């Protein structure tokens, strides 16, 4: 353990304040919200990384802008902790949570002595979610861009010149990364189980336009396929390259005779969804849904375990995972007020506007869109499509607006 962490540990042993697990946007937003209202309450931030502050959504558009990982860091973890008067336990893993004694056991990767024990009066779980790697996508061969460190490593590899990148998963993130890599001069193949990008979120009439726009950019889209294997090429002439084997999952609307195939690429990126590790919530006795994450009370963001809250990617409200940046400030403000005992009106959960960052097409959705359901067209033209999702009571529960980009002036 470093000298910095030793001094931080000794401080936490005598202070029962707020412990925050996770130093992503959610964790730092909670710190900002608490410090805006109380400059003195002890706060300990425990994170498995350096705790640096950066804006994660920038990761899907930074390569084409030639921004390195260091360019995205707004403040190092140590500097941000000093500014906020926070005890930072960086590069530290939480081993266990005891909700009865209200203690956390944690250790650094180099720590050989007994685990450090940190006491808390209130705890906030802001540990985020991590990428899902199906068995066909081995983690030692496949990249993800869910964290700035991995992003930085991938960017170094891509800096050597134009390369061929396969992206597995054509949701919001996969589709945005595909355009970013294309703009940076790389050849891109986007592979998805569905016929079109964003097919788990939007109806086929809408996604068909997105697929057309993606293909018009020069991105190769393989829809209706699953990746069966990723291996290093055994061909001496293709040293360092990866072989991606894919096969059809069944007939699709656009093609009924899909054939299995292989791609030879330089890199593979997984964009196959996120999941929340249940180890810490289970240890803390926190109600947990394997599909959506930690269950919280919507107005307070409290879990069912006394004195423990959750925020951001790791938690869900009313059975829906909350994996968007826009609501974080309001969520953090509610948690801060609740922790400090201030009167507050409660968190009013409203799904944010969802925007696809893609220059070839404008996609904006509201509510909680999903592919199935009673979608109705409200207006349709060559340049624009507007649809509404009606619930069982014929009320609008989601909308989507898709527009072609404006024609450049001559």
TrEMBL record:
Entry's InterPro entries? FAD-bd_OxRdtase, FAD/NAD-bd_sf, FAD/NAD-binding_dom
Q: Which UniProt keywords apply?
A: FAD, Flavoprotein
Required cofactors, per record?
Answer: FAD
Record-linked Gene3D superfamilies: FAD/NAD(P)-binding domain (3.50.50.60)
UniProt key word Flavoprotein: yes
Domain FAD/NAD(P)-binding, first and last residues per copy: 18-324
Protein family: Belongs to the FAD-dependent oxidoreductase family.
Protein name per its UniProtKB record: FAD-dependent oxidoreductase
Q: Which organism is it from?
A: Psychrobacter namhaensis
């Amino acid at each position: 353990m470093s000298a910095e962490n030793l001094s931080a540990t000794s401080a936490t042993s005598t202070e029962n304040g707020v412990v925050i697990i996770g130093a992503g946007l959610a964790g730092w937003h909670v710190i900002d919200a608490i410090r805006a209202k109380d400059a003195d309450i002890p706060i300990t931030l425990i994170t498995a990384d350096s705790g640096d502050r950066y804006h994660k959504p920038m990761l899907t558009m930074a390569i084409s802008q030639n921004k390195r990982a260091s360019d995205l860091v707004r403040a190092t973890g140590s500097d941000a902790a000093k500014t906020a008067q926070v005890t930072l336990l960086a590069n530290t893993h939480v081993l266990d949570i005891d909700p009865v004694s209200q203690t956390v056991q944690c250790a650094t990767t180099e720590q050989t002595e007994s685990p450090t024990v940190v006491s808390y009066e209130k705890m906030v779980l802001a540990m985020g979610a991590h990428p899902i790697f199906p068995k066909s996508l081995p983690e030692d061969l496949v990249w993800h861009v869910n964290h700035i460190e991995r992003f930085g490593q991938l960017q170094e590899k891509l800096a050597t010149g134009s390369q061929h990148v396969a992206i597995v998963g054509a949701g919001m993130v996969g589709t945005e990364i595909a355009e970013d890599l294309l703009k940076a001069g790389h050849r891109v193949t986007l592979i998805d189980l569905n016929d079109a990008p964003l097919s788990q979120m939007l109806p086929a009439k809408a996604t068909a336009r997105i697929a057309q726009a993606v293909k018009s950019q020069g991105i190769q889209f393989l829809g209706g396929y699953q990746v069966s294997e990723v291996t290093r090429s055994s061909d001496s002439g293709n040293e360092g390259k990866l072989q991606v084997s894919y096969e059809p999952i069944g007939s699709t609307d656009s093609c009924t005779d899909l054939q299995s195939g292989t791609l030879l690429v330089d890199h593979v990126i997984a964009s196959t969804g996120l999941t929340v590790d249940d180890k810490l919530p289970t240890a803390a006795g926190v109600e947990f849904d394997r599909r959506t994450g930690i269950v919280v009370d919507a107005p307070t963001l409290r879990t069912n375990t006394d004195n423990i809250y959750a925020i951001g990617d790791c938690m869900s409200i009313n059975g829906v995972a909350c994996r968007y940046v826009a609501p974080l400030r309001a969520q953090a403000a509610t948690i801060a007020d609740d922790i400090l005992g201030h009167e507050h009106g409660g968190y009013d959960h409203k799904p944010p506007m969802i925007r696809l960052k893609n220059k070839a097409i404008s996609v904006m959705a509201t509510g909680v869109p999903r592919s199935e359901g009673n979608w109705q067209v409200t207006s349709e033209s060559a340049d624009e499509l507007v649809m509404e999702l009606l619930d069982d009571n014929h009320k609008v529960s989601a909308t989507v607006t898709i527009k072609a980009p404006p024609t450049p002036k001559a």
